[in-house]
Specification:
Layout lengths: L6 E4 L14 E5 L11 E5 L6 E10 L2 E5 L16 E10 L2 E4 L3 H35 L1 H5 L7 E7 L2 E8 L2 E6 L7 E2 L14
Amino acid sequence: MKRDPIQSITYTGGSMKPILRDGDGLTVEPYGGRKRRVGDIVVFSDPENNQKIIHRIVSIHKDGIRTRGDHNARVDPWILEPGEIIGRVIFACRRNRRIRIWNGPPGHIHSLAFRAGREMDHFVSSLLHPSYRWLSRKGVIRKLFRENFKPRILALQRPEGVEFQLFFKNRQIGRRRPGAPTWEIKRPYRLWIDESTLP
């Protein structure tokens, strides 16, 4: 039996963070005769607009296969047939590094651990959010560490406009998408940054 060739595609979006990042080059292996498993990261075409989607299998039933992005709150609305799945992602290429993607039970455990960690983060954030906002607004931390904190701004031309990215040392700590009214700044860096000074 002739096997379909391994494919290479580029991942875009944020629904599979943190395991996949925007711009990752993905190696996609067809299933052939192998079974689809819960925990597999798979490529399929969106039944509504035919665009390729990369999400994780979260359940397999006799009526079909359900998927969800690791970073999404809800399971995808569609039910897939096995033949609708193009293949599973086995490697991601990022900055000249080849990263193995775990599928099946290890991938499922990773996904559950990420979701549990995110829920805990949301809970702790909700408790600390008033204090964090107050400190950010007052600029107390900013005044104390002004000399040691000097971020850099990078401007990138995108098809939809200019995207600004904010870096501290070699770490991206924020960005402003084209047309967005505000910056997205990672915690806790907003404590050090006066957003009114940014483009």
